Amino acid sequence: MAQDVNFKKTSEVETQYSTGAQRDNRVGKGAFHWMPWDAVFCVSRIYELGNKGRSKTGDGNDRNWENGMPILDLCQSAINHITAYISGDRTEAHLPQAAWNILNAIQMSIWVHLGFRPKSLNTLPNHRGNWKPGDEPPCPLSQQEIDWLTFKGVIPKEETKLKVTSYGQYDDPPVEKPKVAIPQL
Q1: Which of 17, 30, 64, 124 is most buried, with most CB under 10 Å away?
Q2: What's the predicted TM-score (pTM) here?
Q3: Which long-range contacts does 130-139 make (Cβ < 8 Å, 24+ apart)?
Q4: 35 lies in a domain?
Q5: Is 50 among the domain residues?
Q6: Is residue 39 part of a domain?
Q7: Does 94 reside within a domain?
Q8: How far apart are CA 36 and CA 40, in angstroms?
Q9: pLDDT tops 80 at residue 174
Q10: Among residues 162, 160, 180, 181, which one has the least CA distance to residue 172?
Q11: How far apart are CA 8 and CA 41, in angstroms?
Q12: Which pLDDT does position 149 carry in this prediction?
């Protein structure tokens, strides 16, 4: 009998190798091996230079951006860098800076959703729904992102009960109606 070593399988279907070895399949686990690593290197330089440039200690290890920045500010900065690049401006590394802002907007959205950063960092409008200034901002993540992060264990399964509508608002979890005994006549 196999010993339980608390191994977590993510799939019922496993990859079987000709050697007889087997493992979970790779579906849903990301494709890091297909990422463009030269481009990732250029973005990593923005992390290096930005962390050192904003560092109170001078070494960058205080990781300034992780304190929290408004998601919308990160998106606006990304748009500014993209439009500068499209306009022909090559005075700085606009695409890596745009990617830095987008990656951090994604991460900040995850942290805000999980409650690791304050909700006040989500000032996103919702022009696809019945929203007006002053209303609650929409969920910073799509349902697809929530599903992916739940699969990876980033978001606990019990949190997925909150579903996100196509317009970014949270749907209330289904409420089970109390069963009422109907008297027999």
Answers
A1: 124
A2: 0.78
A3: 138/167, 138/168, 138/169, 139/113, 139/164, 139/168, 139/169, 139/170
A4: no
A5: no
A6: no
A7: yes
A8: 6
A9: no
A10: 162
A11: 32
A12: 95
- The 3-state secondary structure of the chain reads CCCCCCCCCCCCCEEECCCCCEEECCCCCCCHHHCCHHHHHHHHHHHHHHHHHCCCCCCCCCCHHHHCCCHHHHHHHHHHHHHHHHCCCCCCCHHHHHHHHHHHHHHHHHHHHHCCCCHHHCCCCCCCCCCCCCCCCCCCCCHHHHHHHHHCCCCCHHHHHCEECCCCCEECCCCCCCCCCCCCC
Which of 8-22, 37-51, 90-104, 127-141 has the lowest average pLDDT? Answer: 8-22
How far, in Å, are 6, 71, 125, 136, 147 from residue 128 at the CA level?
A: 44, 18, 9, 14, 22
**Average pLDDT score over the chain:** 86
Q: Which domain holds residue 160?
A: 66-171
Structure tokens at 109: 């959205």
